[in-house]
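Contributing new records

If you add data, match the layout below exactly. Sequence lines come first and carry their own label; structure lines follow with theirs. Keep one chain per record. Anything else will be rejected by the validation script.
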Amino acid sequence: MEDNLILEPIRIDYIWGHEDWCISAHQRADCRIVNGKYAGSTLSQLWKEHRELFGNLPGEVFPLLIKTIETEEDVSIQVHPDDAYAKAHENGALGKSECWYVLDLKPSAKTAVLGHHARTPEEAEQMIRSGSWSRFLNEVPIQKGSFLQIDPGTVHAVHGGTRFIETQQNSDITYRLYDYGRLQNGKPRALHTEQAIACIRSPYVPRPSEERKELGEGWTRTHLVTCPRYTAEKIEVMGSLAADCRHAFETVSVIDGNGMIGSTPVHGGSFLIIPSGSGMQEWSGTFTALVSWPGEA
């Protein structure tokens, strides 16, 4: 029986706030295991040398990346490519599907940018090139506990004062459309207008909510999304439940509370991987966690 893998986050600072890359095998921030027989190894090492921990999934890179993000200022208006565009234009990299679970926010951050109002690709390009941001951008209300799926090609951004967990593909490709005229080291940050226009999907079609709950004695499981690259659920433990790893592996991001997953103590801010071959484990205590696993596409 394999032990759960606890990872050490890596912080990256930005002009607008910071990110903690909590479950990452990306070359920019390769997290280390801090427990058990693999302590000291990086996640990318385990992916290369012990693929059995991940159900012998194919692929050159570990497929997921989990972050916590805290914004002090507005994040740039941006879009991510899909796998096909990234493969063709970004040296074979993965595209970027992502989703957000809002942990907390200030009163000034009650909305997020999600999608746009252009009816055609031509209208989207015209609005972007003319800087008609108030007409172009679509804003949606958010609150603590909100969940948003951001498919590739979706224009998006969050405002300053937002803290959230992001589950995404293992990719760091972002095309900035607009950055509010901010300066970094005395110069504006680079924009990626042509790449963004090529990737934006028009018209924007809001994704219907997939939320559905399964209730048990001492726990609640809420399905949040299934997309080609991952599935995400929220587990609320208020007692105990017995759970087997049902997939090649599962990532666990503990939002709040305290408890145990098998023999692993967890608390708000714990990030771990339940590997293949871990067997049936008891989840006990009072805590809430996001659980995700890779898709089959």
